């Protein structure tokens, strides 16, 4: 009953505040104390008891009362700092004030008329404008002081007690860093209450930073977020310990702990909300680079815009043990959703992988030494696998386009370095639940298979990423020693899809995708030919794709015919299979085999089970070796080059026996395959020939 009465009194105070049209006296402490002295136990109660509609009504009908409420709340936080937040009552008052401000600040930010409200001084400071402190600075300073308040958010290093409390304005907050790690070796004892209090204050800090969301983009580029400017500037004496505390808290978090099954169902983990909020704070502050804004570029305002100390501190980390600590923490959290156990749902799963990827991108961007450490580390592939997992999992969800972009950009950044391509040759043995074809191969195969899945079954908003995906494959292709048959088939499937006339002619830049794929094939054949027999075999099997591409129609009538034929059937094609369905149109000789191949390919639909007696090859039968290449002859015709042999360079015993067969049998083989295969003709008449002794030689043409 006591708790119900407490909430009822709080609700009555809110109603009284919104219903009175006349301003309420700021000196009426008995009224204002109702908002923070009552024991409202959690932030959910505040959000329930203070509806959004009433906050907007208060802002429109009684703006003076709303302004007074903000003044009194910030004043209460400042007084708590002055008193060192000694008692339990003061600590509860601080929490209630933080919850109340977290609730009402967004509704102040959304009204442009209140834009300068927090950057005016307190009413009591209006007499001396030169020494006045903006309300926002007072609030931020109070929050930072309270984040390092002994017996409230950190453990006291001295004897505790109300009479022996340290002055918050005099303590060295570097002694109270929350977690050991970068720049701090001491490991403080954990207290769930302290972690909960930190989370409440960090959420208020994050709410203050959200003002940017309510401004137009043009305004943001000219006027940086002043809340972040102050927090990350030298005016904040807690900038270094706050940065270190947030960084160490994120990277030291282990959601599994000792690995006791189902422990997350028995006990409430208060560390996860703290880590998630701290990670969001870190990302927001690192994303605020004032040196890149037009305002900072002008000489007039260059001295007025302070440096972002968070970016400065991050870029100066250089010790290998610190890099190992950061990378291990990121790898541990990224791989957490991928952990498979014998007992279902027995381990805790974290869900802030998108924030982790953004954080990893920022660290690599601002600290190149860390990037080089990652590239030479054995944990590089432990970054790749979860990224591919999340890319594959998010490909069809339009709400996670941002996750797709950051994941692809990270891989694009890593692919520019040789070490990344070399490490892709490590065998892939993990058992991660991904809906991709089963294969036995390397991490390079996994990369190709996932990219193929994204391109063929992702939604249309991912099409701008196709260039990046293929650029990644181009960057690593010279280092891929061996590709599996599955990966080779996927690459040829992409070429077949992107080389269709309707797709090539539908946009001015679509031919770039074909260029990328051809460059991939050229790099692998040029640098890693010996180990990639699967790819070479697949290219030979799919030679018709290259022939069709070489004979691509260029006249207007043929182009219009291809586009019209595509437009007629467009209504019956889904967006996810749009690229796949155009393959049959580019190669009429395939007939119905194009449709069968589309079903057989691993795409958005699972492979159909084969019925007895209905197994049909998805590719045309390979012609006999005698039909594909030239045989060695003691008396070659005059119109053919000398010394031309098969591509394989040798003739097996079967071919030797077949030389003795009658001309009648040979004519049957020839008639069954037409005059000669197109591949055979290309070998004879093309500018490149395979010589028996010297290998590839270019033939002089007139």
UniProtKB/TrEMBL annotation:
Residues 580-599, 651-668 have a biased composition (Basic and acidic residues). Residues 563-702 are annotated as: Disordered. It comes from the Eukaryota. One of its GO terms (cellular component) is Golgi medial cisterna. Residues 640-650, 669-682 have a biased composition (Low complexity). It holds the Pfam family Hid1. This is Protein HID1.
């Amino acid at each position: 009953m006591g708790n119900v009465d407490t909430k009822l009194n709080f609700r009555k105070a809110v109603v009284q505040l919104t219903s009175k049209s006349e301003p309420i006296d700021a000196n009426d402490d008995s009224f204002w104390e109702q908002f923070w002295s009552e024991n409202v136990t959690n932030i959910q109660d505040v959000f329930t008891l203070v509806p959004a509609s009433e906050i907007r009504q208060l802002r429109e009908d009684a703006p003076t009362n709303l302004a007074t409420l903000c003044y009194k709340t910030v004043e209460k936080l400042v007084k708590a700092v002055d008193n060192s937040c000694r008692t339990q009552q003061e600590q509860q008052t601080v929490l209630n004030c933080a919850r109340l401000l977290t609730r009402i600040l967004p509704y102040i930010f959304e009204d442009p008329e209140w834009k300068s409200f927090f950057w005016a001084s307190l009413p009591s400071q209006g007499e001396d404008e030169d020494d006045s402190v903006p309300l926002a600075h007072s609030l931020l300073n109070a929050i930072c002081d309270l984040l390092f308040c002994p017996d409230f958010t950190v453990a006291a290093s001295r004897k505790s007690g109300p009479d022996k409390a340290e002055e918050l304005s005099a303590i060295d907050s570097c002694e109270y860093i929350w977690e050991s790690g970068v720049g701090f070796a001491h490991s403080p004892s954990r207290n769930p209450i302290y972690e909960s209090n930190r989370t409440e204050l960090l959420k208020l800090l994050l709410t203050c930073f959200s003002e940017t969301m309510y401004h137009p983009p043009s305004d943001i580029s000219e006027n940086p977020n002043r809340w972040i400017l102050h927090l990350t500037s030298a005016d904040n004496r807690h900038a270094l310990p706050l940065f270190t505390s947030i960084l160490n808290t994120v990277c030291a978090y282990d959601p599994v702990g000792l690995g006791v099954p189902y422990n997350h169902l028995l006990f409430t983990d208060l560390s996860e909300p703290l880590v998630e909020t701290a990670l969001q704070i870190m990302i927001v502050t690192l994303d605020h680079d004032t040196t890149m804004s037009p305002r900072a570029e002008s000489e007039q305002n260059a001295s007025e815009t302070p440096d972002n100390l968070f970016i400065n501190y991050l870029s100066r980390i250089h010790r290998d043990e610190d890099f190992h600590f950061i990378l291990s923490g990121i790898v541990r959290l990224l791989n957490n959703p991928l952990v498979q156990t014998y007992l279902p749902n027995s381990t805790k799963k974290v869900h802030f992988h998108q924030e982790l990827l953004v954080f990893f991108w920022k660290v690599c961007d601002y600290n190149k030494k860390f990037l080089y450490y990652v590239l030479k580390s054995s944990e590089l592939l432990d970054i790749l696998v979860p990224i591919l997992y999340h890319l594959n999992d998010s490909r069809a969800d339009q709400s996670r386009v941002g996750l797709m972009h950051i994941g692809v950009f990270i891989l694009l950044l890593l692919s520019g370095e040789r070490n990344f391509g070399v490490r892709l040759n490590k065998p892939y043995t993990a058992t991660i639940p991904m809906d991709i074809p089963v294969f036995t191969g390397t991490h390079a195969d996994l990369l190709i298979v996932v990219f193929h899945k994204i391109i063929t079954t992702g939604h249309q908003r991912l099409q701008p990423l196709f260039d990046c995906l293929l650029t990644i494959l181009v960057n690593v292709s010279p280092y891929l020693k061996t590709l599996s048959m599955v990966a080779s088939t996927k690459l040829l499937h992409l070429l077949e899809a992107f080389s269709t006339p309707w797709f090539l002619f539908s946009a001015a830049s679509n031919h770039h995708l074909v260029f990328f794929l051809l460059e991939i094939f050229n790099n692998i054949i040029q640098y890693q030919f010996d180990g990639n027999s699967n790819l070479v075999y697949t290219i030979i099997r799919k030679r018709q794709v290259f022939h069709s591409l070489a004979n691509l129609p260029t006249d207007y009538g043929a182009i219009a015919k291809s586009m019209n034929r595509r437009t007629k059937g467009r209504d019956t094609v889904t967006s996810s299979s749009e690229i796949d369905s155009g393959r049959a149109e580019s190669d009429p000789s395939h007939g119905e085999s194009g449709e069968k191949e589309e079903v057989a390919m691993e795409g958005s639909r699972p492979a159909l089970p084969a019925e007895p007696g209905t197994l049909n090859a998805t590719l045309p039968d390979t012609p006999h070796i005698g039909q594909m290449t030239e045989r060695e002859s003691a008396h070659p015709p005059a119109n053919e080059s000398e010394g031309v042999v098969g591509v394989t360079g040798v003739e097996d015993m079967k071919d030797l026996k077949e030389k003795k067969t009658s001309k009648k049998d040979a004519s049957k083989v020839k008639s069954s395959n037409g005059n000669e295969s197109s591949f055979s003709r290309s070998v004879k008449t093309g500018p490149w020939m395979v010589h028996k002794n010297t290998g590839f030689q270019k033939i002089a043409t007139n």
